[in-house]
Design a protein that fits this description.
Length: 448
């Protein structure tokens, strides 16, 4: 895929965002070019070009993993350039730490790809059935579509700029290293040509795969975060509609409470609430392990960032590049958790409004029952107290069940992601960094 295919500023219709996200997901995450219609109709075809593309990507991945393992376990291997030679070309401390971090992340990406590839092949993913509908223009008003499209364009432009900067830096850095290797060979510092050839071939595959991984991080993860934001936005829409309805009821001074209108609105609200709940549950069922692995990678990135910074005797352009890349990965995962942590707060607001509305409604009916014209008023307006008991119980039972609904996402099977958990994780990361730096870096024993 062309490096400059990430051009969100050329999107004019909001519905095109879905095809844009699907394009990058099939290339970077699934490594299988297919349409969602083929998946839903069970007409997936794995062509020869898909097989070649998958094999090339796997070859790049396992060549990178093999190179890192060799550099970690056999740093003086005679078949490739040693760590000392690389350190002369690129003066940087903490190579072992970066090798370990890259190895863990590459293995995690390969495991994620394998599980999603098998899920696509077996058609066990539940979320694709509604994801396309989530990007439907008819679900949002014109102002909301403009706002969402503007958010996607700005966020995509920023994410794409980071991706391109990393890719261009990797290409320039590889070219610089190649010229340095040739210069050392000509000066006699490197005597064996086959070590250069092996290192250039495997190193080239590794650089290309790292650019591919950067595309996965800064395009697919951005599209994933935007999809999560759409689910949050849709739930927020439901909350705002309820807020308007309750405000209109509280502002009204009349007793024109029509049973059919209340029952119709509540049934419509229950239908929308259940639809959003099912969509989020399906999405969470497919990606809850992803949320767990994302949090673990975020913690690992934090540790590596602190340790790498502590090992630098002096900061160079290479040090700043590594720190910037690690910080971008940490911030990206933090933004994803921040986007999906609003469900619990919105759900609690909905419960409070529904409870307040129900209490005020019955209060008005009780006041009306004290008047002398209650029978005439009932015949004319069919008050709420004439609603069948079963329907009334259904409404109250639904209202009471709202706070117990875990609408949102879970970090694997460990915990439910809400605002409090997000704040705890963020504060834990900050305190963990400070404690880790104090104990490990400064060699100060913890206070008992």
């Amino acid at each position: 895929m062309n490096l400059f295919d990430l051009r969100p500023y050329r999107i004019e219709n909001f519905q095109d965002v879905y095809h844009y996200c699907l394009k990058f997901s099939t290339h970077f995450l699934f490594r299988w070019d297919f349409s969602m219609d083929d998946y839903l109709r069970d007409e997936l075809r794995y062509s020869r070009s898909d097989l070649i593309e998958t094999m090339l990507c796997c070859i790049r991945a396992w060549a990178s993993i093999t190179l890192i393992l060799v550099l970690l376990l056999w740093p003086d291997c005679e078949w490739i350039l040693t760590k000392e030679i690389i350190a002369k070309i690129v003066p940087l401390e903490g190579y072992e730490l970066l090798y370990f971090y890259a190895l863990v992340m590459l293995l995690y990406i390969e495991v994620t790809w394998l599980t999603k590839f098998v899920s696509i092949h077996r058609r066990t993913l539940q979320s694709p059935a509604f994801i396309e509908k989530l990007f439907n223009d008819h679900l949002y008003c014109r102002s909301d579509r403009k706002r969402l499209l503007r958010k996607f364009v700005y966020g995509g432009y920023l994410s794409g700029s980071i991706y391109r900067s990393f890719a261009l830096y990797s290409i320039l850095w590889s070219t610089y290293v190649l010229f340095k290797i040739i210069h050392q060979y000509q000066s006699g510092e490197i005597k064996k040509l086959y070590r250069i050839v092996n290192s250039v071939i495997i190193g080239g595959l590794t650089v290309v795969h790292f650019i591919f991984v950067a595309g996965l991080c800064f395009t697919v993860l951005f599209c994933f975060a935007f999809t999560c934001y759409l689910l949050v936005f849709k739930f927020c829409q439901l909350k705002d509609e309820l807020c308007v309805k309750v405000s209109e009821f509280f502002a009204s001074n009349t007793y024109h409470i029509v049973t059919d209108d209340i029952e119709f609105y509540h049934q419509k609200f229950r239908s929308k609430y259940s639809e959003i709940f099912n969509q989020i549950s399906s999405f969470n069922s497919d990606y809850r392990i992803f949320f767990l692995m994302t949090e673990m990678s975020s913690q690992l990135t934090t540790i590596v960032l602190v340790l790498f910074y502590s090992e630098q005797d002096r900061m160079t352009i290479y040090s700043y590049a590594v720190i910037g890349t690690l910080a971008s990965i940490f911030l990206l995962t933090t933004v994803i958790y921040w986007k999906i942590s609003y469900f619990d707060s919105y759900n609690l607001i909905i419960f409070n409004m529904m409870s307040s509305w129900s209490a005020r409604l019955w209060s008005r009916i009780s006041q009306q029952n004290l008047t002398g014209s209650i029978r005439i008023f009932k015949r004319k307006y069919r008050l709420f107290d004439r609603m069948p008991t079963t329907k009334s119980m259904k409404i109250h039972h639904f209202n009471q069940s709202i706070p117990s609904n875990q609408i949102g996402f879970t970090c694997g099977t460990l915990f439910y992601i809400d605002k409090s958990c997000y704040a705890d994780l963020l504060l834990t990361n900050i305190s963990f960094i400070m404690l880790f730096y104090k104990i490990v870096i400064l060699n100060i024993a913890p206070i008992n």
